Amino acid sequence: MDPSIEDRRPTQQPAPGPARIPWNSPWFAAGVAGLLVIVALLVIKRYSSSLRRAESGTSARLDVPPVKLLQYTNDVRQIANGEVTVKARQHFTYRFKVEPEMYGALLVGEFKVSGGGSNDIVAAVVTEAENEKLISAQQAQVVWSTEGKQTAGRFQRLVPTGDLCLTFTNLYSPVDKRISLNFELRWQRKTP
Length: 192
Hints:
- The chain is an alpha+beta fold.
- The protein is about 20% helix and about 40% strand.
- It has helices spanning about 5, 25-55, 130-135; strands spanning about 70-85, 90-100, 105-115, 120-125, 145, 150-160, 160-170, 175-190.
- Strands 1-8-3-6 form a four-stranded antiparallel beta sheet, with no helix packed on it. Strands 2-7-4-5 form a four-stranded antiparallel beta sheet.
- The longest helix has about 30 residues, at about 25-55.
């Protein structure tokens, strides 16, 4: 066969595909904007219908039982009130217990010291186990304490559950100290 004849045959061209619109074309931008408008309208329609249901009091799920809200009652227990004398080189301790059902147990109190030259004392709230260390002048983990010796003090402190002690120490002084004090434990309990 003559090569010149083969070159004269018609060549097959691939079938044209769908026309592609370049992404920077105004038609592409218009298509994306139209799609966004449709999605926004669907979201608005869904939100407004759920809002109308909420206003009318109907729920999408009618089988949901009503939620029982927990009710709490405030309680108070007096821990210490009045005057107490702490002898020279001694301590005085009030013991109290915080039960697990005492939610948000808060120890609130104030004291004022008189007697002796400096009229001051150290006060601390500790666990029963740590109280032994405190009264023997060892390092103890405290829930609350004064910053050194003080003549007066006022505080409120969340306290943990367990057996606790409110201790006034006069271990460093050769003179008796008289303390006017008022301490109470406040908490909330569930009402049935």
